[in-house]
# Entry
Amino acid sequence: MTARTLTCGNKILDLSRPVVMGILNVTPDSFSDGGQLYAGESIDLDKTLHTVESMLRDGADIIDIGGESTRPGASPVSVQQELDRVMPVLQAVNSRFDTLVSVDTSTAQVITEASQSGAHLINDVRALQREGALQAAAASGLPVCLMHMQNQPDTMQTNPVYSDVVGEVLAFLYQRKQVCVDAGIDSEQILFDPGFGFGKTLQHNLVLNSALDRFVDTGHSLLLGVSRKSMIGQLLDSNIDNRLIGSVTMALLMAQSVVRRQDQSEINSGLILRVHDVLETVQALTIWRKINEFGE
Ligand code: 8Y7
# Structure
């Protein structure tokens, strides 16, 4: 079996077991951690680097830097604002730490400039549908995560409707994949993400979760994010400050379903878990792995 790897610019990402992507929001208004890295109007770079350092110490494999909040009702950012938020942080992280950096963006200029400044992966909740984004991503040569979202962030949770949520999400991802491949992106460098919480009710999210096998069967590596999302809050009837255990539990259970299916079908793809709580997620994955190793 060939190794499960992604070619991320000057680095290789080993996906032979699930890896953890730590969320670094450099926005003033993200839903669970907005503004934490801000000193007044501007980003506190020192504090940001300390946050990254602790995520890496806790076992994060990738740091996902985002400069646009996709929270419903968040104010739109200009291209310049997004560049001003993301680029200094990307450059500082890359010069200080030996890690992989993913950029959470839909903006062509951000994709281009970030890839020139050593970004390793493009994570686009709009699946490269914004003008110029596809070409910018193709030119970067970096892996891309295509995520499904119904409607746009400001309206997506109003009344999401599907007749077949799994089929529609998969059809969208395959269609965007084809567009990417036609633009010159290597199919093996494309990750799929069902986009939990993006234009989905709790019911939709649960249906998608129970159909993870079908996402594994696409052969694409998956990126999954449920960390602190409202689905966790709904399942637990808990507010944003009390979703840690729920988020970690769901991440672990998703990882187990994905890996079980990959092993069963000898599918050579990987899994990235996008999380706020790196230490706790890594601990959960470690316990699982060590218990399994003991049983072998
Ligand atoms: C996701 C994401 C967010 C996700 C991918 C949040 C940027 C909202 N969620 N990217 N981004 N997948 N690929 O709750 O689920 O963190 S932002």
